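Side project, low priority. Logging it here so it doesn't get lost.
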Amino acid sequence: MTLPSPVPAAAVPAVRVRGARRTFAAELAPVRALRGVDLDVAPGEFVALMGPSGCGKSTLLNVVAGLDTVDDGTVEVAGERIDGRDEDDLARFRRRHVGVVFQFFNLLDGVSALDNIVLPAMLHGLRRRAAESRARDLLDLLGLGDRAGQVPAVLSGGQRQRLALARARAHEPALRLADEPTGALDSEGGLEVLELFRRLHADGQTIVMVTHAAEVAAGAQRVVRMRDGRVVPEPAAVPVPAAGWAAASPDPGGAR
């Protein structure tokens, strides 16, 4: 019997969402955050999710991260279904596959920059010595090597976001998700963090980033726009006549 050839890793989408629906209870009326969303992200792709406040982009990011669940539809990350799992299983999934960066950093305020990376790395299975080595390498890579002993409160906004990025890289996740990572920063800090994401993408990292800023989205490989809980279809390309644009232009010497 001939066995089927294995599917190449590159053929498996990094993210595949189909028919995702999510409704939240509210005092006046239910909020339909996602209304049948489809999304594909290829391995190594850098995608920006854009749209007005309340359009569902952060909810979509959360269900891909396993921080929330869909009411209906399917969510796959690296070919693995995550919809319908319980919280413990989703936490294990995130530790294996996903690094999440938040707008307000979500750092451990009472411990050093080094231990902000070491502790999550140990949760991912590294021994203390290996986790410290990994943490120092990441701090050096992101220009924070001289801040290893400092607590987050004394760091600038840009430095704290770089530390959050370092922590999210501690276990080399297959997928990196970012929710408004420049939203709490000034323009200089925002550009600094965006440049770090570009470097990650150049190294082959798959990134999905929520942003409301056009200048941040411009750094992504592809922009996906959302409105009212749905992905807005991209406009169809306008076909160019076979003879080129010149054929469609009026002849300057012709009749007026």
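Brief comment: The longest helix spans residues 187-202.
Revisit when time allows.
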